[in-house]
Amino acid sequence: LKITWYGHATLGLETSHYQLLIDPFFSGNPTASTTADKVKADFILVTHGHGDHLGDTVAIAKRTGATVISNYEIATWLSKQGIQTHGQHIGGGFKHPFGYLKLTMALHGSAMPDGSYGGNPAGFLLTTNDGLKVYLAGDTGLFGDMQLIGEEGIDLAVIPIGDNFTMGPADALRAVKLLHPKAVIPIHFSTFGLIDQNATLWAKQVETETGVKVSVLKPGASLDIA
Ligand code: NI
Ligand code: MN
Q1: Which chain residues have CB less than 5 Å from ligand 2, an ion?
Q2: DSSP-assigned beta bridge partners for residue 20
Q3: Cβ atoms 39, 20 nearer than 8 A
């Protein structure tokens, strides 16, 4: 499984047969490492309705024919624009061709760009067909039930550390202690001034206190997990 960070909260997940794109925010993202007209996608996963997550979903789904997976409200909003969607909701999982995907809770908002109700924000817990578990927290504050998610045995957790809109470094460290994953990738930081963070410093602190391996990627860089 190859995971690529495109900057901010935008990720690519490449399984042996499918290309997944998560929260595809390229246009207007000062740190984006590629553009919406170049990126590949078989499936697009959207955690919530905010512009820095819904991003270029409509344009990319129309170009690629990708199915968009999100909460029911966002899926309905997108399907009205002629996009193929699969709606789920928090706590619900479904066996997709690329693996079993469950929506997890997130403490955040989810209004759509046009002000429509975007349902509850979510994270994703993916179990690949090879049995790897990847937790994508989405935009969220710290919550104690991360411990329940961690009980599933997480290979990789992708969590926000930017502060202001999501967990900051101190709470993200506590999140790692609750999730106890094998590896962590921090996201949602230093895209713009409000969420500037020293991720390298955070990584050192997490590794020292928890022994969990932290990979601080540069936008466009990838990590292989097996
Ligand atoms: Ni948000
Ligand atoms: Mn965000």
Answers
A1: 52, 139
A2: 13, 43
A3: no
The span from the CA of 50 to the CA of 55, in Å, is: 8
The Å distance, Cα 3 to ligand 2 centre, comes to: 19
> What pLDDT, in 10s, does the model give residues 107-131?
999 999 999 999 999 999 999 999 9
Residues forming a β-bridge with 11: 5, 22
Q: Report the pLDDT value the prediction gives residue 16, as an integer from 0 to 100.
A: 87
Distance 25 CA to ligand 2 centre (A): 10
- CA separation for the pair 43, 78 (Å, rounded): 14
Could you say which ligand is closest to the alpha carbon of residue 118?
A: 1
40 phi, psi to nearest 5 deg: -95, 150
Which residues, chain by chain, have CB under 5 Å from ion ligand 1?
A: 50, 139
The model carries a pTM of 0.98
Q: What is the 3-state secondary structure (H, E, C) of 93-120?
A: EEEECCEEEEEEECCCCCCCCCCCCCCC
Query: What's the 121 CA to ligand 1 centre distance in angstroms?
Result: 8
- Ligand in nearest proximity to the CA of 9: 2
Q: For residues 82 and 62, is the Cβ–Cβ distance under 8 A? A: yes
Q: How far apart are CA 15 and CA 100, in angstroms?
A: 13
The pLDDT confidence band at residue 182, using thresholds 50, 70 and 90, is very high
- Round to whole Å and give the CA distance between 39 and 22: 11
Give Rg (Cα) of the chain.
Answer: 16
CA of 50 to the centre of ligand 2 (A): 7
Distance 47 CA to ligand 1 centre (A): 9
